[in-house]
């Protein structure tokens, strides 16, 4: 599906944006990608992504997104009129590692008020889509909705339910199902790096990693997740995944959390909470200020760092702890004594304490990468491509370079935009990723004839005088298995079990185990349900479908045809949110 225009939405934990490019430009210069510039009023930050904050009024009607929402909410808070509004920030993490996710899932806002998560996510996608149409009207004149392929990015470490949730959120705002692609964030970043202009075929070129046969690791360090994939360049220039996508939730916001914990350690959790809810405006401004300071922290830093702390925080402290003062609160804690001073609205921190705010996330990332390099297939990977906004932090860069002295660590220009721009490239040419590695073992739950030599007695059931074994995990693909993109991994024939049934259905399971026997084993999870529609019952029991399942795409795809007529398509539904 070659579209005239590819538009991508990078829905990040902390920052989001969109970008697009025309097919005719792409063929001449793949990096000719347009993106909107967003301006934050506070601090006059200009960037190609805006903050992932969304505001709804008291009737749950969408009001604003991004820096605009942040400012509006802050102003409402100043007038103490924010209580009935719904304000969501950093809510993408809700979809990370969420078990039993459903379409009806609720999301809690800043004040614990609930709203349907689907509505929140789809409003954001709808806003970015409409924003592109209105802001880029001139560039897009003559373009129709149907000329566009949309790409939505998700972390590669997300499970299939979360990916489906994002897809449905996008379809709700009018993005046509067959015009929508899901791209995996580190893969998109990998494609972006591949297209960097500096890529030359010389030994010392930075991007010499993109020669055939080369292997490299892409580490997408975002605000929420650290998302890792390992690629090998094939002879025809496509990329093959070498190890299943992996990572964790140790992104840049962990640093913000460390900072908040440090403050709470001094003034108390109750004071921090009261400050955050009563002095909303000050609190938000304080966090924005930290975000700016955070970017200036580097390993060689030796001077004290000064943070401007709202006076209302000290006031809250005095109200809650009458008679105490902040000086004694600090000196009474040996770890802060002589390392931290707090006078008036100035908090001054020793370089060591400030740098230590990065320790937890950097350590977790480094430890994880060390584990990863122990795998035989990853061992000889010699380059690490560091992308994502957090990759721009000198603290993280140095931590990784120090820990992996024998590896080449590359941080491309615009590391924070690699995912967004790479998603556009992916939309033009998804086949650039030619093989992936299965993240789980996938299969369906079935029954088979009972064999006392191998089956557990407890699994025996008797039907129509036959002994059957229930809960069998019928494996389709195994974790770690290399699967080729563009071809189905499983072809199977299924028949109806009842002459009157109008569908054939299966539970789909995943397992972390290579060879699970039963769907009830530890590590197995019911992922969802597959339905094959068989509405015409005239042939009774003599009905069935020939089913193809593809596990090598960014989403699981199931197609089916009638067992007696390959021209007759059987409609299928894969539901991971039921
Ligand atoms: N120069 C910098 N120094 C330190 N941290 C930075 C810098 N630039 C960005 N960050 C941090 O990087 C994070 C944002 O990165 P990015 O925009 O890639 O995340 P995201 O796409 O919103 O999140 P995710 O991919 O996890 O959903 C924030 O925590 C931000 O504070
Ligand atoms: C490439 O590296 C070699 C030594 O490894 C050096 O002599 C040469 O000048 C370098 N070339 C460029 C263009 O930097
Ligand atoms: C590139 O090569 C790989 C490995 O040989 C193959 O699987 C893939 O289909 C090829 N892709 C293209 C676009 O030629
Ligand atoms: C039950 O078993 C009998 C004999 O084995 C067989 O003829 C019949 O078709 C079976 N019925 C069903 C519903 O499987
Ligand atoms: C499924 O049935 C078709 C004919 O309907 C046959 O050609 C094919 O080999 C069967 N596949 C399997 C896996 O049994
Ligand atoms: Mg990101």
Automatic annotation (TrEMBL):
Pfam families: HSP70. The keyword ATP-binding applies. The lineage of its organism: Eukaryota, Metazoa, Spiralia, Lophotrochozoa, Mollusca. It comes from the Eukaryota. One of its GO terms (molecular function) is ATP binding. The keyword Nucleotide-binding applies. Keywords: ATP-binding, Nucleotide-binding. Belongs to the heat shock protein 70 family. It comes from Magallana gigas. This is Heat shock 70 kDa protein 12B. InterPro entries: ATPase_NBD, Hsp_70_fam.
